[in-house]
Amino acid sequence: MVVAVGLRLERPSHTSRRHHVDIADHSRPSRGLECVYDLRVYGHLRDLKGKPLWIAILASWGVALLEYCLQVPANRIGFAAMSLAQLKVAQEIITMVVFAVFATWYMKERLTMDFLYASVCLAAAAFFMFRGVTAPA
What is the pLDDT of residues 80-96, one digit of tens each? Predict the structure, then answer.
């Protein structure tokens, strides 16, 4: 989310007046949510690898319930500031940043240059999705 930090968006309200929303404020729920997502999807590979598959599935479902309880309000908050396409790109950038921390710290994986190249592509996506947005005067 480096590209959009501090950027303000204008989005028409229901009364057709325009208001300003700070993207950085609206990305906070998504950052926490990505930690839960990574734990649900990949945590069992480390913590439950000796357990039966059904235990890993039930544990993942339990974490998924928490994830969805956070996802719905996070999307509503984000959609108040961004278009649907901008929201998706912002979420993907947050996902890559949080995943990099999760993969190196929790899973003890090394990041490769391919991860860097993918991150550059996401930064380019953010540029194109947010390039028409102007900061308030």
Answer: 888 998 988 888 888 88
